[in-house]
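Example 3.2
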Amino acid sequence: MKLLSVNVGRPRPNPWKGLGATGIDKQPVDGPVMVTAPGPKGTGEVGLAGDRVYDVQHHGGSDQAVYAYAREDLDGWEVELGTRLANGVFGENLTTVGLDVNGALIGERWRIGSVVVLEVSCARIPCATFQGWLQREGWITRFTQAAVPGAYLRVLEPGSIRAGDPVEIVHRPDHEVTVEVVFRAMTLEPDQLPRLLVADALPEAERALVRRRISG
């Protein structure tokens, strides 16, 4: 298990959400990148130095500090879409190999390199910017049905990371709520929502949303 690439965004115009810019255009970078906890959502700050988000209402902050996607899943999409997909094209900060990102448990912790520790917090939910960026009509529906969303992570131990760093799972919580389970419950399988509340590391915003939807 290791990082194939560490990807940092560069701002581009965002005509798909009515925002001035988007940071979805993530590009692999050479050399080390500093990773720190960005603080609360609303500032545009994220975990990787040099990166940021522009839809500050829905993205960024400590619970969405870092976004990881598996190269194996990108390879699957390459076959389905019939086009090459470079590392970072889904807006992920970390492109991994050998790591079951969607099977990761909420609260699972990864050590990257020798210092950095990240904790799996929630699943990525697709948005209009993602669909517009890929220029695929119906992409949100297609991505949702596939249920391979990738994982958001929070930063527990800061430090620098770089392409080629090993990834080690150092903690797995005692429940069965994976990234995929969260995604399915939040999208097409709302009957699964009550399962999510056993995952203590699920962000409070998501927990509150689950409670509201359960209560009707």
